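Reviewers of the previous submission asked for a worked example of the structure-prediction workflow described in the proposal, so we include one complete record here. The input consisted solely of the amino acid sequence. No template or homolog information was supplied to the procedure at any stage.
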Amino acid sequence: ESGYGPSSRAGDNLLNDFVQESAGSYAAFGAARGDRVARVDGVVTLIDAGSPLPFINRAVVEQPIDDTRTLLDHVRPFYDTGPSTPFLVDSAWPTPDLGPIGFVAMGHPPLMLRPAGGTFPPAPDELRIVRVDDDRTAFDFEHALIYGYPAPQLQPMREVTIVTPAALDAAGWTHFV
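From that input alone, the workflow returned the following C-alpha coordinates.
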Protein backbone atom coordinates (compact mmCIF):
# COMPACT_ATOMS: atom_id res chain seq x y z
CA GLU A 1 0.00 0.00 0.00
CA SER A 2 1.47 3.29 -1.13
CA GLY A 3 -0.89 5.57 0.81
CA TYR A 4 -2.35 6.68 -2.50
CA GLY A 5 -5.22 5.38 -4.59
CA PRO A 6 -8.89 4.67 -3.97
CA SER A 7 -8.20 2.02 -1.29
CA SER A 8 -6.48 4.53 1.01
CA ARG A 9 -8.75 5.76 3.79
CA ALA A 10 -10.30 9.19 3.19
CA GLY A 11 -8.82 11.81 5.51
CA ASP A 12 -5.49 9.98 5.82
CA ASN A 13 -3.69 11.87 3.06
CA LEU A 14 -4.68 15.33 1.81
CA LEU A 15 -3.12 14.88 -1.64
CA ASN A 16 -4.80 11.51 -2.12
CA ASP A 17 -8.15 12.95 -1.02
CA PHE A 18 -7.71 15.73 -3.61
CA VAL A 19 -6.87 13.27 -6.40
CA GLN A 20 -9.68 10.83 -5.59
CA GLU A 21 -12.22 13.66 -5.32
CA SER A 22 -11.00 15.12 -8.61
CA ALA A 23 -11.29 11.78 -10.40
CA GLY A 24 -14.76 11.13 -8.97
CA SER A 25 -16.10 14.62 -9.59
CA TYR A 26 -14.86 14.83 -13.20
CA ALA A 27 -16.39 11.39 -13.82
CA ALA A 28 -19.71 12.53 -12.29
CA PHE A 29 -19.73 15.70 -14.40
CA GLY A 30 -18.95 13.72 -17.55
CA ALA A 31 -21.54 11.05 -16.78
CA ALA A 32 -24.23 13.69 -16.18
CA ARG A 33 -23.40 15.27 -19.55
CA GLY A 34 -23.42 11.91 -21.36
CA ASP A 35 -19.68 11.96 -22.06
CA ARG A 36 -17.60 8.80 -22.40
CA VAL A 37 -16.30 7.89 -18.94
CA ALA A 38 -14.13 4.93 -17.91
CA ARG A 39 -12.07 3.98 -14.89
CA VAL A 40 -9.19 1.58 -14.37
CA ASP A 41 -9.24 0.93 -10.61
CA GLY A 42 -6.28 2.54 -8.89
CA VAL A 43 -4.70 3.67 -12.17
CA VAL A 44 -6.70 6.33 -14.02
CA THR A 45 -10.17 7.85 -14.47
CA LEU A 46 -10.89 8.86 -18.08
CA ILE A 47 -13.41 11.43 -19.31
CA ASP A 48 -13.94 12.33 -22.98
CA ALA A 49 -16.43 15.09 -23.77
CA GLY A 50 -15.27 15.16 -27.38
CA SER A 51 -14.58 18.87 -26.89
CA PRO A 52 -11.85 20.90 -28.58
CA LEU A 53 -11.22 22.26 -25.06
CA PRO A 54 -8.89 19.77 -23.33
CA PHE A 55 -9.90 20.82 -19.80
CA ILE A 56 -13.04 18.67 -19.93
CA ASN A 57 -11.29 15.73 -21.61
CA ARG A 58 -9.22 14.44 -18.70
CA ALA A 59 -7.25 11.41 -17.66
CA VAL A 60 -6.89 11.74 -13.88
CA VAL A 61 -3.99 9.61 -12.60
CA GLU A 62 -5.07 8.06 -9.28
CA GLN A 63 -1.67 7.38 -7.73
CA PRO A 64 2.04 7.89 -8.48
CA ILE A 65 3.08 6.42 -11.82
CA ASP A 66 5.33 3.43 -11.28
CA ASP A 67 4.92 2.11 -14.81
CA THR A 68 4.27 4.62 -17.59
CA ARG A 69 3.42 1.82 -20.02
CA THR A 70 0.54 0.57 -17.81
CA LEU A 71 -0.95 4.06 -17.70
CA LEU A 72 -0.54 4.73 -21.41
CA ASP A 73 -1.96 1.30 -22.34
CA HIS A 74 -5.26 2.63 -20.98
CA VAL A 75 -5.03 6.31 -21.94
CA ARG A 76 -4.05 6.03 -25.60
CA PRO A 77 -6.81 3.60 -26.69
CA PHE A 78 -9.47 5.57 -24.81
CA TYR A 79 -8.73 8.81 -26.65
CA ASP A 80 -7.75 7.25 -29.99
CA THR A 81 -11.29 6.07 -30.84
CA GLY A 82 -12.28 8.78 -33.30
CA PRO A 83 -11.41 12.30 -34.34
CA SER A 84 -8.39 13.72 -32.55
CA THR A 85 -9.53 15.04 -29.18
CA PRO A 86 -7.10 17.07 -27.09
CA PHE A 87 -6.94 15.83 -23.52
CA LEU A 88 -5.07 16.41 -20.28
CA VAL A 89 -3.29 13.83 -18.18
CA ASP A 90 -3.66 15.12 -14.62
CA SER A 91 -0.99 13.77 -12.30
CA ALA A 92 -0.45 15.24 -8.87
CA TRP A 93 2.96 13.57 -8.87
CA PRO A 94 5.98 14.07 -11.11
CA THR A 95 5.85 12.07 -14.32
CA PRO A 96 8.69 10.83 -16.45
CA ASP A 97 9.38 12.89 -19.56
CA LEU A 98 6.45 12.04 -21.84
CA GLY A 99 7.66 14.37 -24.62
CA PRO A 100 9.32 11.64 -26.68
CA ILE A 101 5.94 9.89 -27.04
CA GLY A 102 4.04 13.00 -28.11
CA PHE A 103 2.87 14.57 -24.84
CA VAL A 104 3.49 18.23 -23.94
CA ALA A 105 3.88 19.48 -20.36
CA MET A 106 1.21 22.07 -19.62
CA GLY A 107 1.31 22.64 -15.87
CA HIS A 108 0.14 21.02 -12.68
CA PRO A 109 -3.38 20.44 -11.34
CA PRO A 110 -4.03 22.95 -8.55
CA LEU A 111 -4.41 21.78 -4.96
CA MET A 112 -5.85 24.73 -3.09
CA LEU A 113 -6.46 24.61 0.64
CA ARG A 114 -8.06 27.25 2.80
CA PRO A 115 -7.63 26.40 6.47
CA ALA A 116 -10.74 26.66 8.61
CA GLY A 117 -11.38 29.91 10.42
CA GLY A 118 -10.69 33.51 9.64
CA THR A 119 -13.09 36.02 8.22
CA PHE A 120 -13.74 37.09 4.67
CA PRO A 121 -13.41 40.73 3.72
CA PRO A 122 -16.70 42.42 2.89
CA ALA A 123 -17.83 41.98 -0.71
CA PRO A 124 -18.05 45.11 -2.86
CA ASP A 125 -21.61 46.43 -3.07
CA GLU A 126 -21.66 46.04 -6.86
CA LEU A 127 -20.65 42.35 -6.72
CA ARG A 128 -23.46 39.91 -7.35
CA ILE A 129 -22.78 36.16 -7.27
CA VAL A 130 -25.50 33.81 -8.49
CA ARG A 131 -25.78 30.04 -8.80
CA VAL A 132 -25.79 28.65 -12.32
CA ASP A 133 -29.17 26.95 -12.49
CA ASP A 134 -30.71 27.82 -15.86
CA ASP A 135 -29.88 28.51 -19.51
CA ARG A 136 -29.13 32.22 -18.94
CA THR A 137 -26.71 31.76 -16.04
CA ALA A 138 -25.07 28.78 -17.82
CA PHE A 139 -24.48 31.01 -20.84
CA ASP A 140 -23.02 33.75 -18.63
CA PHE A 141 -20.75 31.23 -16.86
CA GLU A 142 -19.39 29.80 -20.10
CA HIS A 143 -18.99 33.24 -21.64
CA ALA A 144 -16.84 34.29 -18.67
CA LEU A 145 -14.83 31.06 -18.92
CA ILE A 146 -14.32 31.16 -22.70
CA TYR A 147 -13.44 34.83 -23.00
CA GLY A 148 -11.92 35.42 -19.56
CA TYR A 149 -9.30 32.67 -19.51
CA PRO A 150 -9.43 32.58 -22.68
CA ALA A 151 -10.44 29.42 -24.59
CA PRO A 152 -10.04 30.46 -28.25
CA GLN A 153 -11.00 26.99 -29.51
CA LEU A 154 -14.57 27.70 -28.32
CA GLN A 155 -14.74 31.24 -29.73
CA PRO A 156 -16.92 32.73 -30.96
CA MET A 157 -19.32 31.40 -28.37
CA ARG A 158 -22.81 30.90 -29.72
CA GLU A 159 -24.30 28.36 -27.32
CA VAL A 160 -23.68 26.51 -24.07
CA THR A 161 -21.51 23.44 -24.65
CA ILE A 162 -20.00 22.68 -21.23
CA VAL A 163 -22.56 23.42 -18.50
CA THR A 164 -25.43 21.82 -20.38
CA PRO A 165 -28.84 21.33 -18.73
CA ALA A 166 -27.85 17.76 -17.80
CA ALA A 167 -24.62 19.01 -16.23
CA LEU A 168 -26.54 21.32 -13.88
CA ASP A 169 -27.50 18.21 -11.90
CA ALA A 170 -24.04 16.59 -11.83
CA ALA A 171 -23.35 15.14 -8.38
CA GLY A 172 -20.96 17.30 -6.37
CA TRP A 173 -20.93 20.21 -8.82
CA THR A 174 -22.25 23.72 -8.26
CA HIS A 175 -21.25 26.54 -10.54
CA PHE A 176 -21.48 30.26 -9.78
CA VAL A 177 -21.20 33.35 -11.93
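The radius of gyration is 18 Å. We consider this example representative of the routine output the project will generate in years two and three.
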